UniProtKB/TrEMBL annotation:
PANTHER family: 2-KETO-3-DEOXY-L-RHAMNONATE ALDOLASE, PHOSPHOENOLPYRUVATE CARBOXYLASE FAMILY PROTEIN. Keywords: Lyase, Metal-binding. GO terms for molecular function: aldehyde-lyase activity; metal ion binding. It comes from Salinarimonas soli. This is Aldolase. One of its GO terms (cellular component) is cytoplasm. Belongs to the HpcH/HpaI aldolase family. InterPro entries: Aldolase/citrate-lyase_domain, HpcH-HpaI_aldolase, Pyrv/PenolPyrv_kinase-like_dom, Pyrv_kinase-like_dom_sf. It comes from the Bacteria.
Length: 255
């Protein structure tokens, strides 16, 4: 039996994914053919509207590939939209406090004051999934990931990590670097902040996710509890692939 993404995160299994920056279902479809464990549509920093997210999620689902949506903000309507479209879960930026984390969990799940219900959504199989089945299934399947990328979040990290329903804490290290007034992600204050997030997550039994600029850094963070790594992007693949092709072409001519 293949584990769901939520089960992988809960078990701390090494999980590799990448960011999709191009709002194209074809690119999503191609990446769905790879051995990546998960894709993450970057609707915060890339030009994804609801229609583009819908098509890319559809392509990922057709390929049987778990797909996360990095929402533009913690707003409940962004969470609702991504999940109704059929995303496996959400990666939500700027979760700055335990209160924001609790609001996020409420917005991602059905219940009093929580996610609005629509049986006509893709997530509910366009009315083909009975309400009771969909509510239970959604609770078991939906992944909620809080991005930690602000000084305030680090200062409240123990309380954030303790919020029930948060499946993982994802370190936005570049944003943390800027938030701390630094220019180098290797700055001691930034590294200490990331380590504090890892300690808080381990104490609360939460998974840690992160982006690292070099895959070699994975070995540095795995012992501290990091298991979800969203590395590189489709843009990065294009740039590096083109650079490699040019280098190989010149080498073939003895240049």
């Amino acid at each position: 039996m293949t584990e769901s993404l939520k089960q992988r995160l809960q078990a701390g299994m090494p999980t590799i994914g990448t960011f999709l920056k191009t709002p194209s279902p074809i690119v999503a479809e191609v990446l769905g053919l790879t051995g990546l464990d998960v894709l993450c549509l970057d609707a915060e920093h890339a030009p994804f509207d609801r229609g583009a997210i819908d098509l890319c999620v559809m392509a990922c689902r057709a390929a049987g590939k778990p797909v996360l949506v990095r929402t533009p903000s913690p707003a409940a309507e962004h969470v609702l939209s991504a999940l109704d479209i059929g995303a496996t879960g959400v990666v939500v930026p700027h979760v700055t406090s335990a209160d924001v984390a609790r609001d996020l969990v409420r917005a991602a799940h059905y219940g009093p004051g929580g996610r609005g219900y629509a049986g006509s959504s893709r997530a509910a199989r366009y009315t083909m999934r009975p309400m009771a089945e969909h509510i239970v299934g959604s609770a078991a399947e939906t992944v909620v990931i809080a991005m930690i990328e602000d000084v305030e979040a680090v200062e409240d990290i123990e309380a954030i990590a303790a919020v029930e329903g948060i499946d993982a804490l994802f370190v936005g290290r570049a944003d943390l670097t800027v938030a701390f007034g630094e220019r180098d992600p290797q700055s001691p204050v930034v590294v200490e902040a990331v380590e504090r997030v890892c300690r808080a997550a381990q104490a609360a039994g939460r998974t840690v996710g992160m982006f690292v600029p070099r895959v070699e850094e994975v070995a540095r963070w795995r012992p501290l509890g990091a298991s979800l790594f969203l590395l590189d992007s489709d843009h990065g693949f294009l740039l590096k692939g083109a650079a490699r092709l040019v280098a190989d072409f010149r080498a073939a001519q003895g240049a």
